[in-house]
Amino acid sequence: MNPIHAALVLGVRAGFCSVVLVGLLVFAAAADAQQITGAGSTLAQPVYGKWADLSHAATGVRLNYQGVGSGAGQELVMRRTVDFGASDAPMAAAKLSQNKLMQFPTVIGAVDIAINVPGIASNTLKLTGPLLANIYLGNITNWNDPAIAAVNPGVKLPDLAIAPVYRADGSGTTYVFTGYLAKLSPDFKSKVGVDKAVSWPAGTGAKGTAGVAGAVKNTVGGLGYVESAYATLNHLTIVQLQNHDGRFIAATPQAFAAAAAAADWTGVANFAVDMNNMAGANSWPIESATFVLLPTNPANPARGAAVTKFFDWALTKGDAAAIGLQYVPLPEGVKTAVIASWKQAGLM
């Protein structure tokens, strides 16, 4: 017999139906407060799902999270449709203030370049930021282009059209990737720019990270940008990239950690640190923190507190799970600052 049924039977037998009814309402309200909803970043979706599975026994909080893209996540939390939004693109300070939101990072994720080129294994092909920019600008259209061959001596490149794939929805991963390309290519910066959704001169759109991963995997000649966790889980073929120091680096947890360690969080408003193209011989060049957007005036204060309860567990006990999914945990000092920001906002 479940607890609610048992309480009802007991109350009827004792003649205290009204008391039982009040008790059931309190029980239901408490249960509802422990059910939280979030939506947005697909970069963060694998780790949020894992944290939800692991933390429930300790926190009592159940998370319903939908990876609908960072743009949709921002819109949904501004409309208070969800308890928190998630975005890899940090929200501007003025917009945070206008919508009574606070922003904090939860974990650091990398973006891999996935390809589908016959005869090319993972970490065999090398690419640079300018080469990727020219592919997405439509200036380089074939895998045996001399510019690609120049950085891949000894690699047999096929006479095959490149089929670039991009996110068709508003995406924090697109924001991170375009930010990287804009740093390495003035031409890309002026013609395309940096945003969650841009007008791509070349390529085909796909919805969500799963859509990009699927399109690359199913298209001979395909190339796309995907979160490292998805590349690993879907066994995608990935490339080496040239980093800030000029070295070609494989997409490994060690390279992700090296880039994260080089980031300077000092004095950065709302934790909005830029981690693209970080210096360091071993640093992976495309990387970002992923952020949560949490109302400072939640429609349901109990659920707002449950959100911080969930992420408090994640920040203090979720590192091993994050590392297992190719993420980099936040530095301890940043975690401390995040938790302090919740307390200052009265959400913990």
SSE topology:
Blueprint (H helix, E strand, L loop, with lengths): L2 H12 L2 H17 L1 E6 L4 H15 L2 E5 L3 H9 L5 E4 L5 H6 L2 E15 L10 E2 L1 H8 L9 H5 L12 E5 L4 H13 L1 H6 L12 E3 L1 H11 L3 E6 H6 L3 E2 L1 E3 L5 E2 L3 H10 L24 E9 L5 H17 L1 H6 L7 H13 L4
What does this protein look like?
With 348 residues, the chain is α/β, with parallel strands linked by helices. It folds into three domains: 31 residues, no CATH class; 126 residues, D-Maltodextrin-Binding Protein, domain 2, CATH 3.40.190; 177 residues, D-Maltodextrin-Binding Protein, domain 2. The chain is 44% helix and 18% strand. The chain contains 15 helices and twelve strands. Strands 1, 2, 3, 4, 6, 7, 8, 9 and 12 form a nine-stranded mixed sheet that branches. Strand 1, helix 3 and strand 2 form a beta-alpha-beta unit. Helix 1 runs antiparallel to helix 2, helix 3 packs across helix 13 and helix 6 packs across helix 8. The longest helix has 17 residues. The protein is elongated and about 60 Å long. The relative contact order is 0.18. The N terminus is likely disordered.
